Amino acid sequence: MSLLPSHSPKIFIRNPVLVRASAGSSSSPLQTPPCFVDGAKHCWPDHVELRFAYPSTDYPKLIKKAPVELVYNDINDPIIPWPDEQFEEGEVTTIGSSHGWVASLMHGVGILRLHDDLNPVASDANPKCISLPPLVSLPHCQTQIVTNVSLSSLSPEEEDCVVAVKFMRPQLSYCRPSAQGNSKWFNIRIANPCFFSSRLMFSKKHNMFRIPGAGGQLIASWDLCKDEHTPKFQELRYHFLPEPTEAEREVMDTCLTSEHMVESQSTGETFLVKCFRQTVDGIAVLQTKAVMVFRVTPKGNAVYTQDIGDLTIFISKAEAFCVRASSFPGVSPNHVYILDVMEISFFKLADSSITTLTERIMAPYFFPPQNIEY
After folding, report:
1. Alpha helices in 16-125 (DSSP H)
2. Which domain holds residue 76?
3. Is 110 a domain residue?
4. What number is the average pLDDT over the span 352-368?
């Protein structure tokens, strides 16, 4: 059974069909398909005109503007490294995205902001920007390098929304934006080093923030909505692992592995995705060489699968998500779509084939379907 790829499916296209959130239900809100910012044209001194990429040509073209700093200033960009000492006070970089909200960090003062400027359905005339209190570093921790950001709700304006930020190394911080003048950060020191570089996600099914440990042996969960700072741990047991060939093993041994957890809201399933990525041409740009997907059961069984049915998983610098492919024309089922600063990849689970486009992505965030309001 081959783990490494050969070739694969449809490519994102530049123009956007609005679809119902629930197929066949006329009362469901219209939604945009999954998309990302494919490019930007300078039209104003400090703003750009965005170009979105969609999975089908049938979607109506959307024209939006956004601040330059939200498109050309990603802190995780390996092509433009951002050493801590290089930041000037007040300099802004983007650090992640969740539910269509992009997070930025103002260095020197540690102010984190949430923006809807890159959201394809947000108001162009009145974009929203929510400022959170200044970050505070725990002793022997840092708040400059962020792994990702996660929201517990669709919008930080919702009353019970919790915003959580996972920093590189031990610190995990969260706050409630709706607390207005009483909003403040709560900081947690993570003891186990296997979680230091891992990515955070919010589980709607468990109503908890969860982090898979490096290697995928453990999952840690925090009920931050109830201010419970002590994590619960789940140990995973792997089943039906394929035996790689010697050539595959040699490639995978040279790869950097990352783990991503994602939930399907339509089926209730939880998946753990392992991405194997390798440096390209001797530079600090990574390209996906293999992907493995596991269904995670409530009892901690991680079952290797090459069939997730009608589902498609989207992995980028934003929080990972999953959609029913049949709800969005042009989205290929049983695939993992991957987006990074120099990569758009389409991984087909059935035969482990992959199509990779090497392309400069200025805002490497997949945006999940957004409700259209009229």
Report:
1. none
2. 19-367
3. yes
4. 92
In angstroms, the first-to-last Cα distance of the chain is: 49
**Measured in whole angstroms, how far is the alpha carbon of residue 335 from the centre of its chain?**
16
Pair 199, 146: CB distance under 8 Å: no
Structure tokens at 331: 């989205």
The residue among 46 and 186 whose pLDDT is bigger is: 186
pTM (2 decimals)? 0.90
Q: What is the domain count for the chain?
A: 1
- Give me the pLDDT at residue 185, please: 95
In b/e form, how buried is each residue of 22-59, taking b as 16+ CB within 10 angstroms? eeeeeeeebbbbbbbbbbbeeeeeebbebbbbbbbeeb
Which residues partner with 184 through β-bridges?
A: none
Distance from the Cα of residue 5 to its chain's centroid: 23
Rounded distance between C-alpha atoms, residue 90 and residue 329, angstroms: 42
Residues 6+ apart with CB under 8 A from 354: 5, 6, 7, 8, 288, 291, 345, 346, 347, 348
Check: CB of residue 175 under 8 Å from CB of residue 136: no
CB 156 within 8 A of CB 112: no
**What is the CB neighbour count within 10 angstroms for residue 355?**
17
Q: Is residue 216 part of a domain?
A: yes
CATH of the domain at 244: 2.130.10
Asked if residue 171 is part of any domain, the answer here is yes
- Statement: residue 170 has pLDDT above 90: yes
Both structure tokens of 335: 């695939």
- State how far the Cα of 16 lies from the Cα of 147, in Å rounded to an integer: 30
pLDDT in tens, 52-90: 888 876 666 667 888 888 887 655 555 554 444 455 666
**Whole-angstrom Cα distance, residue 148 to residue 131?**
17
Query: 107 versus 93: which is more confidently predicted?
Result: 93
